[in-house]
Every structure is written in structure tokens, then in C-alpha cells.
Request: fold
Amino acid sequence: MKPADGTEQDSGEDDWYKRREKQERIRELENAGIMKRYRNVTFENIEKRGLPDNEDIRKNYEVVKEYATRNLEWNLEHGFGLILAGNYGTMKTTMAVAVLQQWIKDGHSGLLVPMCSLIDNLYTMRSLNREEWAKYEMRIRSTPLLIIDDLGSENTDQSWVLSKVNSIITERYNKMLPIIVTTNLSKGELEGTYSGRIMDRLRNISQYLVFNSESQRRTLAS
Reply:
């Protein structure tokens, strides 16, 4: 028999609301480009798991965390971003996702886009559905925070790709909308691949952090 005070029913309702909240949270994260692998990547969870014993990564982590917590509103207002550059497997994407998670938690919206997916989506959508393509590109250009993951992984041999990257960065620069870039390319490689004017603009509105350590992927999902 059920208790007269309805405890069992209340418990069931609580479970239903919790499941619903979890599903809504997952949809919110996926809409921001945060998929299952990075769903639980937050500054709190990174610190619970423990940062690698690497001074370079720890120093950069503190800068990124300060960007997302202490100076969040100022960065949003002034369009100030980050460039996280260096070796693969050094937590660059992890840190960028943690910023976006904090951004969303604080009531803002944003979008994480792997560079290869961005170009592929723009190319495919334009062929299949011009309306969806226009909406997607407009979101990239106007979302309050854009994270471009793995800049340089796209096929830059095609001139339209470089033109599109330049166009997106220029528009966001003019609108004072922040961009966080992760890349395995060095500063010289970036300048040799993209327009010098565009890279100058990115550096002008971004703190440039270099990750010199070896890959941590054997012990830490990055």
C-alpha cells in the first residue's frame, strides 16, 4: 500500500522532474555544440579529477579560468577572447569547453564548432537546404561566444575556405563578439596560413596562450 502522506508519489514526481531537467540540460549543451564526451567538463569537475602535474598546463589553466569567472562580463562586453595554441593533448579543448559551460551557466549562450565540422556543415547545408545554411552561418557570426576548435585542421587549399574564415572573424571583430580559438599550429604557421590582417585582429582581441607540454591524453581526457 502507498503511504497515506503520498510520499511514494512525491518521490516519483521528483524523479520525473529530475529526468526532465537532465534531458533539457543535455539538449541545451548539444545545442551549444557540447556533445557527450565533454558534457561533464567544467572547472569544478576538472579540479575534482585533478590537473596534470605540469607547470605549463596549470599556469594556462589559471588564466583561462580567470577569463571565464572573474572577468566574464568584461570579456563579453569588449569582445575579448583567447587563442590556445600548441601541442595536441594538452587540455586546450577541455579548457575551452569549461569556459563555454561557465558561460552557459551564467545565463549566456554560445557555440563550440570544430573547424572541420564548420566547413563541412557550411558546404553540405548550402547544397541541401539554403535556409538552414543561412541560419547556421548567421548563428556562427552572431552567437555571444564562439569557440573555434582546432583551427588549421580544415582543408585550406580551397580558397573559399580561407575566405569564409576571414569573413567570420572579421564580422565578429567588428561586432566585438568574443572568439576562443584552439589550434595545434604555431604563431608562424597561423600567419602563413591565414590573412595577416585577420591574425592581427585575432591577436588584438585575444590573450595568446602557448601550450608547450607533451600530450596528457594517456592520463587525462582532453
Notes: The mean pLDDT is 86. The two ends are 50 Å apart (CA to CA). The chain is about 55% helix and 10% strand. The chain has one domain: 32-211.
